[in-house]
């Protein structure tokens, strides 16, 4: 019996350690853990996929969005506290355009294909009317003969007050996509307007490269 208890305890310990390894850390006691850009993107994608448009977020998810998304409107008479999201300006006022430039290179897991993604995404903030978009090019820098398809995407999710309780939720979620087969370089230059009382937003670009034995993406 004692041996069985020891085995059960070991199994439980392994399960707990596994769950901790896959969790995205946010806080630990009073000590704030700084998240990487990839961790922030993964957590925001998880939150966005969990809720429907107009559905209120949980307290923890709302706090995460408020911390790491970009604030779209602010009372300039109040003091402004900047968050720790890497390489992100977290404040944009009505009438302003926030443009984020990037130049990323990545390689498929098997080393067959290398690609570069360079360009920008933007968000034009209005009081009610807004516009987002992207202008970037994905170029295959190695292994172009293996590549079957390139897809460039830009996703914008806007958050605002939903319902009558003043809770934060998704009010807009849209992905613009430009796919092309049989090319070694492909560009996207698209934008879209939308209307809503936006308080926060998050925008991301992605290139998806499909080749003969697999696929990979550059965020």
Structure report:
With 219 residues, this protein is an alpha+beta fold. The chain has one domain. Helices cover 21% and strands 46% of the residues. The protein contains three helices and eleven strands. The chain has helices at residues 2-22, 37-50, 59-68, and strands at residues 27-28, 31-32, 70-71, 97-107, 114-124, 129-142, 147-162, 167-181, 185-195, 200-211, 214-218. The strands form three sheets. Strands 3, 7, 8, 10 and 11 form a five-stranded antiparallel β-sheet that branches. Strand 7 (147-162) and strand 8 form a beta hairpin. It starts with a helix and ends with a strand.
What characteristics describe this protein?
single chain; 219 residues; alpha+beta; five-stranded antiparallel β-sheet; four-stranded antiparallel β-sheet; 11 strands; 46% strand; disordered N terminus
Question: Gist?
Answer:
The chain is an alpha+beta fold and 219 residues long. The chain has helices at residues 2-22, 37-50, 59-68, and strands at residues 27-28, 31-32, 70-71, 97-107, 114-124, 129-142, 147-162, 167-181, 185-195, 200-211, 214-218.
């Amino acid at each position: 019996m004692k041996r069985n208890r020891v085995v059960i305890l070991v199994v439980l310990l392994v399960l707990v350690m596994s769950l901790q390894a896959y969790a995205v850390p946010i806080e630990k006691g009073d000590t704030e853990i700084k998240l990487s850009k990839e961790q922030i993107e993964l957590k925001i994608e998880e939150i966005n996929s969990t809720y429907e448009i107009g559905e209120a977020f949980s307290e923890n998810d709302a706090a995460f969005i408020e911390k790491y998304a970009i604030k779209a409107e602010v009372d300039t008479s109040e003091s402004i506290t900047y968050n720790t999201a890497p390489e992100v300006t977290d404040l944009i006022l009505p009438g302003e355009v926030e443009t984020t430039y990037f130049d990323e290179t990545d390689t498929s897991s098997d080393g067959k294909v290398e690609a570069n993604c360079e360009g920008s995404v933007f968000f034009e903030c209005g009081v009610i009317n807004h516009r987002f978009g992207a202008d970037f090019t994905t170029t295959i820098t190695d292994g172009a003969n293996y590549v079957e398809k390139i897809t460039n995407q830009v996703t914008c999710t806007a958050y605002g007050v939903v319902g009558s309780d003043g809770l934060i939720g998704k009010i807009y979620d849209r992905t613009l996509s430009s796919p092309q087969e049989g090319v070694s370089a492909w560009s996207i230059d698209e934008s879209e307007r939308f209307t809503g009382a936006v308080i926060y937003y998050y925008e991301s670009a992605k290139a998806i490269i499909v080749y003969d034995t697999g696929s990979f993406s550059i965020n």
